[in-house]
Amino acid sequence: MLSFFPESFGQNYPEEADGTLDCISMALTCTFNRWGTLLAVGCNDGRIVIWDFLTRGIAKIISAHIHPVCSLSWSRDGHKLVSASTDNIVSLWDVLTGDCDQRFRFPSPILKLQFHPRDQDKVLVCPMKSAPVLLTLSDSKHVVLPVDEDSDLNVVAAFDRRGEYIYTGNAKGKILVLNTDTQDLVASFRVTTGTSNTTAIKSIEFARKGSCFLINTADRIIRVYDGREILTCGRDGEPEPMQKLQDLVNRTPWKRCCFSGDGEYIVAGSARQHALYIWEKSIGNLVKILHGTRGELLLDVAWHPVRPIIASISSGVVSIWAQNQVENWSAFAPDFKELDENVEYEERESEFDIEDEDKSEPEQTGADAAEDEEVDVTSVDPIAAFCSSDEELEDYKALLYLPIAPEVEDPEENPFGPPPDAAGQTGSAEDGTAHTGSGDKKRQASSDGAPPKKKARTTTIELQGVPSDEVHPLLGVKGDSKSKKKTAGRPKGSKGKEKDSPFRPKLFKGDRGYPVDGAGMGVGMKGRAQAETGLAAAGKDPDDPPPQQQPPAPPPPPHPFSQALPACCFPSDKTPAHFPQTANEPAPPQLPLRPRAFVTPGAPLLGRLGLITLCCGNTKPVINQEAFKE
Question: Of 387, 457, 577, 627, which residue has the fewest beta carbons closer than 10 angstroms?
Answer without folding.
Answer: 577
